[in-house]
Amino acid sequence: MNQHDMEPMRWADGENPPSKSEPDALSETQQEAAREFEALGTFLRQHHEQPRLPNPDFFAHSVMETIRREEKPTSTAQSAGWWSRFSPLRMAWSGAALIAAGVALAFLLIPGAETQPRFPGPIQYRTERLEVQPQPFYMAEITQFRSHDPEVYVSVYRSSPDRVTVLWLDGLAYLPEAHVVQ
Amino acid sequence: MVWRIYPKLMWCNKQFLLFVFLVFVPMGAPGQETADSPATGCKAWTAVVKAENDPDRETCQELQPYLSQLQHVFGYTSYRLLGEDAGELSIGKTVRLTPTRHYQFNLTLQSMEASDGPYHLDLELHKEERLLVESEVKLASGSPLFIRGPQWGSGQLIFLVRAERKE
Asked: What is the ipTM of this complex?
């Protein structure tokens, strides 16, 4: 019920009588109706007694309790709306789903994450070509060498074409043919 | 109040444990050891070889992979394996290998970059109790170190040191 609809009722109750400073603005019929309404309002106020509530405080308390009870679930639901989305069960399933999605993406996007090639044909061919490529050969390196024997001279010989690294010892005593090394 | 919320707490704990199990257990599950996983040791093989020019003597099977290299560097035609010894090396641990009764190797694995090497070794070659040479070398699978030893009659004594991946 809007303000416009409330006006006649207030007018009928005598709270907001029509302005008498503008009688010319109303027609004769309206003025007559206004006088009848005013007379009716006066009559009702004088002769119609409003029923008295036996326990007005209890009635007001009950009404307020009812209002609170009806408003409480709504406000609780509104305040707990976000937190209810992060229940442990949902978080568990969300975590599991994210892990599964991560594993699936890793297999899809990272080359070599899958043990078998997904596409037969050129990709498989290229994989085989890479596998038969020889690995780079590592030659032995000598970073330090020394001999505590003053008669022994140590040097290093490296031959890249032969892929050989030799620690060359000179000055060792000659072993006769009859010498047994076993 | 406690007995009223206790079932809810238990329910929450079960869901929480399920969440922890699903998320963290796969992360901490021990995976299979791959080729890139850090290894802590290698195998070492040492040998004493006599090189000579004897057309009647054939090079033994163990030295066949190195025959062309030996012939190119030392120039002898045949190579005879006099003795060999092998062992497993661990980082920081010294292992004594005795390919023959007179010659011994003390090998210490200092570090390794991968399971296939290179292996950073401290090497000592002893003749009986006499230290002939000590050296720091980096070896890898398939790249042995040759040590030219003393002259022996009409031939030459050669030592081989090889490091390779531990199975």
From this structure: 0.73
